[in-house]
Every structure is written in structure tokens, then in C-alpha cells.
């Protein structure tokens, strides 16, 4: 416990405390109506009720876990697809010039299309709901993974590859012992960016009409006049995003512990 306290950076609490104080004074003065910005007290009461369901303050009383699980499953599916295709095509593009010439220009053209531009097409292809959300998450998170993996794979020094071949490494061994370890920091950057994008596009997908999920809570709350639930759902997404990012870092450091100083 003492070690944890020593690692805690108290400076990081300065801005949140200032924002909280400004929030309190603005709402207490009445300069902003409560239906546009609830008081901190009301907001925290709603959050507690969202988690535990004791006060029945909103229609979402006690329903945080079921919405959280629904959103997490969608992110896992979409991000998983992006990881598979991003790693596969990224390493192929980074190491094989012919594949780069075939794939890379098209990928970068598609990348420039805003994610929201795919929404009408996704709804036509997959309908409203689950599949559209997963498609949008996978598409948006694919690009940062692909770009960073391809960059990392292409930057492996030629002398490393020649040394590996001189020592008798075949193509698979060369990949696992030279290319992957050298490119791994870039891979991690791509995975972290892709995971962050996944949580952002989760909201876009869930606004299309799914019955459960944190994005659906935000949309329904606006229509029902439950303004407090919108930032409550946003905070849940932010916390989930941070926790999954830390989990991803732990997994990456388990795969290559000697990169722990680089991967933070």
C-alpha cells in the first residue's frame, strides 16, 4: 500500500479538482440550468444509482453492468477483427514490397473516408444494431494497427536480417526472433491507438438503435431528458478504455518483458 501511494502522482489530480470546483460554482450559482448541467451532487447520486440501483432515480437504475457487458463484447469482437487483419496485412505489407504496392495505396484511400461516412452503408449491409456496430469498430481500429505494424516491420535493419540468416535462421525463425521483437514497440502503439478508437466508434455504432450498451444509454437519455446519464455513460466508457489499455500493456509486457521500459 505504501509503495502504491509513493507511485501516485498527486499533480494529476489538480486539473480534475479545479474542474470539479468550477462545476460546483457554476451550477450552484444557477447560471446554467440543471437540465443542461446537473449539480455534482445530483450527478454522483445518479452514478451510484446506475451502479447499485438503490434509489431508482432514473430508468437505468442498477443497469450499469448489463450495458457495460454489452458494450465490452462489441469492442472485443470489433477490436479482435481489427487486430487479426491489421497484424496480418501490416507485417505482409511491411516486409513484402509487391504486397505493399498492391494493398497500401487502397488502404490509405479508404482510411481518409470519415468513419461516420460508412454508417449509412453499414446500416444497409448489416441492418441496425449489433453487426453494424462491430463493423464500424473493426474498420476504424484497423487503420492505426495496420499503419504502425507495417512501419515497424519495414524498419528492421538489414544487418539484423543478414546476421539471422548467417546463423541459419529460416523464415519463420527470422520472423519470431528478429522482425517481431524489433517491430514490437510499433505494434503496441498501433494496438493502443486501435483500442482507443474502438471505444470511440462503439458510441457511434450504438447510436444506431441497439437495445443495450453505454452508447444506447447516452442516446436514450437525451430523448428521455435524463441529462445526468449522458456524462455518467461517458465516464464509464473512459474508465473502461483506460482499464483495457492497462490490460493490453500487461499482456504486451508478458509477451516481451524486455520491452517493458519502452512500453508504458
Automatic annotation (TrEMBL):
CDD domains per record: TM_PBP2
Entries under PROSITE patterns matching the protein: ABC_TM1
TM ranges: 75-96, 108-128, 134-160, 172-203, 223-241
Superkingdom of source: Bacteria
Compartment list: Cell membrane
Domain ABC transmembrane type-1 span(s) in chain numbering: 68-248
Main location as per UniProt: membrane
Membrane topology classification: Multi-pass membrane protein
InterPro entries listed in its UniProt record: MetI-like (IPR000515), MetI-like_sf (IPR035906)
Keywords: Cell membrane, Membrane, Transmembrane, Transmembrane helix, Transport
Pfam families linked to this entry: BPD_transp_1 (PF00528)
PANTHER family reported in the protein's UniProt record: ALIPHATIC SULFONATES TRANSPORT PERMEASE PROTEIN SSUC-RELATED, ALKANE SULFONATE ABC TRANSPORTER-RELATED, MEMBRANE SUBUNIT
UniProt similarity note: Belongs to the binding-protein-dependent transport system permease family.
Protein name: ABC transporter permease
Organism of derivation: Clostridium formicaceticum
Lineage: Bacteria, Bacillati, Bacillota, Clostridia, Eubacteriales
